[in-house]
UniProtKB/TrEMBL annotation, chain A:
It comes from the Archaea. This is Multicomponent Na+:H+ antiporter subunit D. One of its GO terms (cellular component) is plasma membrane. One of its GO terms (biological process) is ATP synthesis coupled electron transport. Residues 567-598 are annotated as: Disordered. It is a multi-pass membrane protein. It is found in: Cell membrane.
Automatic annotation (TrEMBL), chain B:
This is Multicomponent Na+:H+ antiporter subunit A. Its main location: membrane. Coiled coil: none annotated. GO terms for cellular component: plasma membrane. Keywords: Antiport, Cell membrane, Ion transport, Membrane, Transmembrane, Transmembrane helix, Transport. It is found in: Cell membrane. The keyword Ion transport applies.
């Protein structure tokens, strides 16, 4: 029975999407459905996290066979500590973005298609985190892509359509490559189930698998994940798509959808392909340097790109490219010295565990900080109609809470303690430092890239801050925010609402209450970053559990327990499967009768 | 002890959090509330001092990473804590007068208190990462305080500069810390089981891995950026954009001492080899006469001391002069700590106290001058003693101490530096003779600018100056208190040594040591001669001050200035960004697609090559019929014809030949379901294409030859990669799950119909897969179709709105 909790987040997201579609008759009902759905999603994720990570006796792995088929024949959802961590990373962003959407996205757009699409996107993300099947992963990638595609071109203007075109073309190319790779993997390994694939790669002779092509096929998949994660040179869609999409959509894209690419890299290359051995090389020996190359290029290009932008959204978009580099770097670094060990939580473990932990903690930081910054930018746009530096200035005195939130988010990117970002940076730096100590090739170059990237982060963060929040308020700011927010604007003083002049001179669509909610969301995320930094032990613990799950291929295979198709049937094997329940397609004689009755 | 330390460190943060509320009640008198908080901290530090607290106390923070809020109390920690809280009381009191009528006071006091807490944290931290945490928080509060006048362009420039340099330096230090904690398997700095306690073993591990020098250099970058050592000193003069109390507090007495503190804190660790007795590495290091530590820090410190003193002579603004002077004196302390003998440690320890006392006093004097006379320009100020008599006395005491004139306290510590450099050179010989020479040279310039500062109060009053007000008591008392401290230490330096400086010295030497003696020289030692030379040459050069000043200013052009490098780097970065981005993101989807496809192909091919994949031999399967060959040949011809199509419509039509041939191929290969699907899709796509093409321009213009060649190469590479992928992956014959499924059901191979009727409830294998085995995939794809419909709706209905935006 416990297995059913695995599918709960997906069911909530799917039901919410469908209900929101049905509730289009009334905008308020639809918004309520969307908000309740987002809250329900968070609850479902929390329940799953509780069942998986906080299980008595330590983190466990739960599986759920969809349509009641057993692995590897049908599609199995697998929730281990890694999947649970990623879902827990997504949930707060989803809730924040949903709340923010309701008060920021164009009313007519919300009625039209916004909420169903938003929750379909959440469905795609959750499916990608939970599925234990390579082809099914492709399907959830498609769901994610299609919904986000529409959301990127949501306002359907010239630049939105143009951005969406680049986005969809590159991602469709990636989908095509993914199909080629998955088809190839099925042809070479004979399975689509991840656990089964891992088992077959670790012991290819037993299954008649010729293992050699899987390295190239895996590398093809890696390029697909790199497109999703937006690392150089697969990043081209990022800047324009992030600028075109409505702020809460960008928040989810940058905060969560990007992390799906990161997750897929971890899942496939540590859990599934990690155990494969080739004639003169190994998965890690080939993929490690590749990842470091992608990461280094991303860190530098993202940092340099962000340093000269003249608008907040552009700065944040390039920053995302650089930050993903920081997430990928420790993965590559740990792979290049597979024999190295480290001490984590008082126990000696593989450096790979530290590398994955680093990537996960950094991902969580980025998943909170970047949405915060994009939403703050969205609020600036709501109030002032632009995020161009030339039109902004002096906002620190006019919007102190928003400024405070923005500052904390920026500092999280820099890695200033005690914000969570510090621990992300600490772990990434530590992985590289210990990699160097263990004789990592080109270690000095990696360290230099990492430090230069960190300095670039400080450079663009401070530049953005000076341009937007310090300096003299521009004419536009003086006109639209004549007094400090919170003085009279939020106090319900109607006359102070003279700021309700839209940029084009017409009445603004944004209400005071909407701005209060927007700022509250930003502040909540900022407090979350600080709170999780002070209570970093919880985060590091969960990330370490997830990293152990990611690198523990054997435990993963054992938990999913794919039936061995070649082996003779034995009842005890089937009984050992986590999802063996009554009426399961367990393919023994009695089940055949049950199946016939269906 | 733990409770007291926690209270000392966190009380200021609590005070800072409450400041906005307090400000609503007290208004401008919030200054005295903040001063009271600082006074409580001072009291708690005194309590720690009086109870003789010593050692480590810790609360857990992130045990998984071994990071704890460990605190370590010793002489050095207590001295810095006294400075942070004691000067804090004075500065906050002074602010009450200085900040009268200024904007943003609640934020100002909150940030100052938070800074004070961070500084106390730096001083007391006993864990590498706790130290780093507070270290970065001081940088952050410094950023906010330098940018206090938020609308001034100079403040923004200065704040960003300080943040870039100090936070970046901190990150270098962090990497150094990580290497230390890796080698030592602990994050504790001092005390039992710490890095310092096991220095021998830790250093040996680092040396074996070839990481000893990198670690030392990484820490040096951290210390040098924070303590404004050359060439990272550039941020400090700009930091004077902050209100003067901030300059006095952060940028002279406390925050900039953090780097010096770090040097003192790690001195016992890095010099443990010279203290003897830790295995082979120690013997090896002892054989090398000058330890790396001395090479790095004595050089860094002496260069900074001299260069910054010269720059101070070239200054035109009193705060700028004091800023360079601060860098110079921090260089003195770093140099003293750098020299591997006991005089060095004594000099460094003593000068921390002396410099804080006279320099904070001088900054407050500068604040009074700027506030009351309305200018900070050196050439406009003179004869101030007529208007500001008490201030003049304070200035005299403090600047003579800064000059190193006996018997003022600055003299004693400088004398110790001279002694250290001389003794060291005498012992080692060779190049180390440069140490005493440079030390004297730097001190001559120090003498000159100190006298210049003093001269502002001497001579005739400049009538152009206008009316000079008297400062309020709240602004006068704090510098007076500091001048009294200078006076007392000057009269009997042993009071300070016995009270705390001796313990500080003990903290900065490896092994056991507790105190030392210092006093006016009674014999003609080399150091005395050095002092005499300094003062003598200084006095001789004084009449030429203006010429030296002009000479320095005219020499400071272009790349000679470290600022030139900073400004060009920052401006260059922005320019580079503006050049690079349009080139990379050129807006052409074609370029992007080429990168993605080529990148993916390169990764895949690289994988095949690395794993040693062999292409299967190409042979025509025996079962190939004429029909299949013809169909495939037509498909190939169609594909080639697409590239030569004269128009879009022709191209689409030719392309569809390929699609339909594939459908026919499916028919021939006994796959009617696939064939039907393919036919439907192909037809629909063709129709939609033609409809869309009707609305598009028929011709986009000629492509040039180079582009055509490039596109052909990309297309060829991608095509070959995909073809190769298909070849190598279809050559395999693993036990597939489909076969396994059939075998498991106990059916003979090929006889799978029964399986799918029994298990899937359907006759058609494809249907059963789609709606049962892999129904979840189908559900996902159905949502994709639904979303596609929504996207059409959105595109059409939102268009007018989007265009309007």
């Amino acid at each position: 029975m416990t297995g059913q909790i695995v599918i709960a987040p997906m069911l909530v997201a799917l039901s919410t999407a469908i209900l929101a579609l049905l509730a289009r008759f009334d905008g308020r009902v639809e918004k309520a459905v969307s908000l309740v759905g987002a809250g329900g999603y968070a609850v479902a994720v929390a329940a799953l996290f509780d069942a998986v990570v906080l299980a008595p006796g330590g983190p466990t792995t739960l599986t759920y066979g969809v349509s009641d088929w057993q692995a590897p024949f049908g599609i199995v959802l697998v929730a281990d500590a890694l999947s649970a961590f990623m879902l827990a990373l997504a949930a707060p962003v989803v809730v924040a973005a949903a709340v923010y959407s309701v008060v920021s996205v164009d009313e007519r757009g919300q009625r039209l298609s916004y909420h169903p699409l938003f929750h379909f996107m959440v469905l795609g993300v959750s499916g990608a985190f939970l599925t234990g099947d390579v082809f099914n992963l492709f399907v959830w990638f498609e769901v994610m892509l299609m919904s986000s595609y529409v959301l990127v071109l949501f306002y359907s203007g010239r630049e939105h359509t143009r951005a969406a075109l680049g986005y969809v073309v590159l991602n469709l190319l990636a989908s095509a490559l993914m199909l080629v790779a998955i088809g190839g993997l099925y042809a070479t390994t004979g399975t689509l189930n991840m656990a089964d694939m891992a088992r077959r790669l670790a012991d290819p002779a037993a299954y008649g698998v010729a293992v050699a092509p899987t390295l190239g096929l895996g590398a093809l998949l890696l390029s697909v994940f790199a497109v999703k994660a937006g690392t150089v040179p697969f990043h081209f869609w990022v800047p324009s798509a992030y600028r075109a999409a409505p702020a809460p959509v960008t928040a989810v894209l940058a905060g969560v959808v990007k992390k799906v690419g990161v997750y897929a890299v971890i899942r496939l290359f540590f859990t599934v392909f990690g155990g494969a051995a080739y004639a003169s090389t190994s998965t890690f020996a080939y993929v490690g340097p590749v990842l470091m190359l992608l990461a280094g290029a991303s860190i530098i290009l993202g940092g340099v790109g962000a340093a000269g932008r003249e608008d907040v959204d552009g700065l944040l978009a390039f920053s995302s490219i650089g930050q993903v580099g920081f997430i990928v770097l420790p993965l590559g670094a740990a792979m290049t010295v597979p024999a190295a060990t480290t001490t984590l939580a008082g126990a000696e473990t593989m450096l790979a565990v530290l590398g994955v932990t680093a990537a996960l903690v950094y991902s969580l930081t980025h998943a909170l900080a970047k949405p915060l910054l994009f939403l703050a930018s969205g609020t600036i746009r709501s109030a002032l109609g632009t995020t161009d530096f030339a039109q902004l200035g002096g906002l620190a005195r006019r919007t102190p809470l928003l400024a405070g939130g923005f500052l904390l988010g920026s500092l999280a990117l820099v890695g200033v303690p005690p914000i969570l970002g510090f621990f992300g940076k600490l772990l990434v730096f530590r992985t590289v430092a210990e990699g160097i100590a263990a004789g990592m090739p080109a270690g000095a170059l990696a360290a230099a890239t990492m430090l230069v990237g960190a300095i670039l982060t400080i450079a663009y963060v401070t530049r953005g801050w000076n341009q937007v929040f310090w300096g003299e308020p521009t004419e536009r700011v003086q006109q639209l925010i004549p007094v400090r927010w919170g003085r009279s604007r939020f106090a319900g003083d109607g006359d102070a609402g003279s700021s309700s002049i839209a940029p084009d001179g017409g009445p603004s669509t944004v209400t005071d209450r909407a701005l209060v909610v927007q700022v509250a969301v930003v502040v909540a995320l900022a407090l979350g970053l600080v709170g999780l930094g002070v209570g970093a032990e919880v985060v590091v613990d969960a990330a370490t559990d997830a990293a152990h799950a990611a690198t523990g291929t054997d435990a993963y295979v054992e938990a999913v327990a794919p039936v061995d198709p070649g082996a003779e049937y034995s009842p005890s094997h089937a009984a050992g499967a986590a999802n063996a329940s009554d009426g399961s397609h367990s393919l023994d004689a009695s089940a055949a009768v049950d199946g016939g009755e269906r | 002890m733990l409770e007291t330390v926690l209270a000392v460190v966190f009380l200021p943060f609590v005070g800072a959090a409450l400041t906005p509320l307090v400000y609503r009640v007290l208004g401008e008198r919030t200054a005295y509330y903040a001063a009271a908080v600082a006074a409580v901290c001072l009291g708690l530090v005194t309590r720690l001092y009086l109870t003789g607290a010593h050692g480590v106390a810790a609360v857990e923070w992130v045990p998984s990473l071994g990071v704890s809020l460990a605190f370590y109390v010793d002489g050095l920690a207590l001295l810095i804590s006294f400075l942070a809280s004691g000067v804090g009381v004075l500065i906050l009191t002074y602010s009450g007068g200085y900040m009268h009528g200024e904007p943003g006071q609640a934020k100002y006091y909150a940030t100052l208190l938070a800074f004070m807490g961070s500084m106390l944290g730096v001083a007391l931290a006993g864990d590498l990462f706790a130290l780093f945490t507070f270290w970065e928080l001081t940088s952050l509060s410094s950023f906010l305080l330098i940018g206090h006048y938020t609308s001034e362009a100079d403040s923004q420039y200065a704040a960003r500069k300080s943040m870039l340099i100090t936070v970046a330096g901190g990150l270098f230090m962090l990497v150094g810390f990580l290497l230390l904690s890796w080698a030592g398997d602990t994050t504790l700095i001092a005390g039992e089981g710490s890095l310092t306690a096991n220095a021998g073993g830790v250093i040996e591990t680092l040396r074996t891995a070839g990481l000893f020098v990198p670690t030392l250099l990484l820490l040096a970058v951290g210390a040098a950026t924070k303590s404004a050592q050359v060439p990272f000193h550039v941020w400090l003069p700009n930091a004077m954009e902050a209100p003067t109390p901030v300059s006095a507090f952060l940028h002279s007495a406390t925050m900039v001492k953090a780097g010096v503190y770090l040097v003192g804190r790690f001195r016992p660790f890095f010099l443990s080899e010279t203290a003897g007795g830790h295995g082979a590495a120690a013997a090896e290091a002892a054989a090398a006469l000058v330890p790396e530590w001395t090479v790095v820090f004595a050089t860094l410190g002496l260069v900074t001391m001299t260069v910054a003193a010269v720059l101070a002579v070239g200054s035109t603004d009193i705060k700028q002069l004091l800023a360079y002077s601060t860098a110079s004196h921090l260089g003195l302390i770093v140099a003293a700590f750098g020299i591997a003998n006991s005089y060095g440690a004594e000099g460094g320890a003593f000068h921390i106290l002396n410099h804080a006392s006279f320099k904070a006093a001088l900054f407050l004097v500068a604040g009074i001058v700027a506030h009351e006379a309305g200018t900070r320009r050196i050439d406009r100020l003179s004869g101030l003693r007529h208007d500001l008599p008490v201030t003049a006395i304070v200035a005299a005491v403090a600047s003579l101490s800064m000059a190193g004139v006996p018997p003022f306290n600055g003299f004693y510590s400088k004398e110790l530096l001279f002694e250290a450099t001389y003794e060291y050179a005498h012992e080692i010989g060779g190049l180390t003779w440069a140490f005493p020479v440079v030390a004297v040279l730097g001190s001559v310039f120090t003498f000159l600018y100190s006298i210049k500062f003093l001269s502002l109060f001497l001579g005739e009053r400049d009538e152009a100056l206008g009316h000079v007000h008297s400062p309020p008591l709240s602004m006068l008392a704090p510098p007076a208190v500091l001048a009294v401290v200078v006076g007392v230490v000057s009269l009997d330096p042993m009071i300070a040594v016995n009270a705390i400086v001796g313990e500080v010295y003990g903290s900065t030497v490896p092994g056991e040591a507790h105190s030392f003696t210092v006093g006016l020289p009674t014999a003609l030692k080399p150091a005395v001669v050095m002092s005499a030379v300094t003062i003598g040459v200084g006095a001789l050069a004084w009449p030429q001050y203006d010429r030296i000043h002009d000479g320095v200013r005219s020499a400071l052009r272009g790349p000679v200035r470290a600022d030139w490098w900073y400004d060009n780097a920052v401006a260059g970065l922005t320019a580079l960004s503006k050049r690079v981005v349009p080139r990379v993101q050129n807006g052409l989807v074609r370029t992007y697609a080429a990168w993605v496809l080529v990148g993916a192909s390169a990764l895949a091919v690289g994988g095949y090559v690395a794993a040693g994949v062999e292409l299967p031999a190409l042979a025509v399967p025996a079962e190939t019929t004429v029909a299949v060959s013809v169909v495939l040949a037509v498909a190939v011809v169609g594909a080639i014809a697409v590239t030569d199509a004269p128009s879009h419509v022709a191209g689409v039509l030719t392309l569809s030949i390929l699609g339909f041939m594939v459908a026919v191929f499916y028919v021939l290969a006994d796959a009617p379901d696939l064939a039907l699907t393919q036919l439907t899709v192909e037809t629909l796509v063709l129709v939609i294409f033609l409809l869309v093409l009707d609305r598009l321009p028929a011709w986009y213009g000629e492509t040039d030859r180079l582009t055509a060649v490039r596109d052909a190469a990309v297309a060829g590479a991608v095509g070959l990669t995909v073809a190769g992928t298909v070849l190598v992956s279809t050559a395999a014959s693993p036990d597939t799950i489909a076969e396994g499924l059939i075998a498991r059901a106990g059916l003979p191979p090929g006889e799978h119909v029964g399986l799918f009727t029994d298990y899937g409830g359907g006759q058609n294998i494809v249907n059963v897969i789609l709606v049962d085995l892999r129904a979840f995939d189908t559900m996902g794809e159905i949502s994709v179709v639904a979303m596609a419909a929504l996207s059409v709706l959105t595109l059409i209905r939102m268009r007018e709105r989007g265009e309007a935006q």
